[in-house]
Amino acid sequence: MDFERLFRADLEKLKEDGNYRVFADLERRAGSFPKAHHHVDGTDTQDVTVWCSNDYLGMGQSAIVTAAMHEAIDKCGAGAGGTRNISGTNHYHVLLERELADLHGKEAALLFTSGYVSNWATLGTLLGRIPDVMVFSDEMNHASMIEGIRHSRARKVIWKHNDLDDLRAKLAAADPDAPKIVAFESVYSMDGDIAPIEAICDIADEFGAMTYLDEVHAVGMYGPRGGGVAEREGIMDRLTIIEGTLGKAFGVMGGYITGSTALIDWIRSFSSGFIFTTALPPTLAAGALASIRHLKKSEMERRRHKDNVAKVRLGLTRAGIPWLDNPSHIVPVMVRDAKKCKWISDILMDQHGVYVQPINYPTVARGAERLRITPTPLHTDADIAHLVASLSSLWSQCALARHVA
Ligand code: PMP
User: Fold this and answer.
1) Can you point out the beta strands (E) in 129-287?
2) Atom number in ligand 1 closest to CA 247
3) How far is the CA of 304 from the centre of ligand 1 (A)?
4) Would 301 disulfide with which of 57, 63, 380, 404, CB 3.0-4.6 Å?
């Protein structure tokens, strides 16, 4: 078999379909977020303002976080030195797991190397080990949940996105004796819509199902202590498992689940995605710990962030640029054309120093292509005005329709 030929043919097809990914070669500069250097063709550099980062609150460059990481690397060195079971558990991991359990009002927490791994490994283990279990998965769930479910080979039922009637009908039609898990997210990252968590828990309770909630895009952002949408709604105790990431609002890297002592001990004991991999470096755990502790007390970042989201939306509305209304912090600017979306993104970067990655199929449906804008508390009014003016001029050049305010 000519493997090279196969690889090249697959890549050509991606390019033809406009789905080939090109990474922006960025250098984030500590202390100057959301500004970054963009390396162009490996030689020139360009100063850009980043408008599509998931470091939603800029904590990845907060002096509080970087100081904690410096201290930890000086104290503990670079790596964890092993898996959690074989010499890799550092005191920072223990403190961080306690902090996360407290954040979500749960008895215990367990760290993974990313949010992806936490979903994949936890769902894979639950569904792989509980006899006859069935999973009820929201159709818009993230790839990490889908892959974990697929890997387990458990019986799966996909329910329509955020559709309570469909969920109830599908649970009612299932084998009443089968153990059941309902898996869903709070904030969905592309449309920015939010699940009716309490109503989903009510339905899950009717059928004795366990609930698994991914709060990856909500932790640090919602709730009085940054515990997510479930904290804001005062319903954290209704969820069997709350999963989150340390890589978005907390600004570092890593993933976790929280739940009862027995559940966490069980996943810790049986999940190969937890057991057979090197633990997170102590520096990352220390940085995440500092970030979480800070955001538990400080409302300032969340307040400024909300203000900036509102300012961006207002600016876009005034310019007649259509954005998808939603109750979260994500501002999807709908282009609805793959080529124009990519073109606008390219010109924004090259000529306006504005970086927004285009989001095309398969991440979103064809015809729903967009620029996913994520304002942060650190964007200035001048940044916002420049973003809106730049988008507005490209909107005209592309002859895209405007909304009349
Ligand atoms: N869940 C959701 C809903 C996500 O959007 C993502 C990443 N974009 C993940 C999980 C994975 O988290 P991480 O980036 O920490 O691997």
Assistant:
1) 134-138, 155-159, 180-185, 210-214, 241-245, 255-259
2) 15
3) 24
4) 57
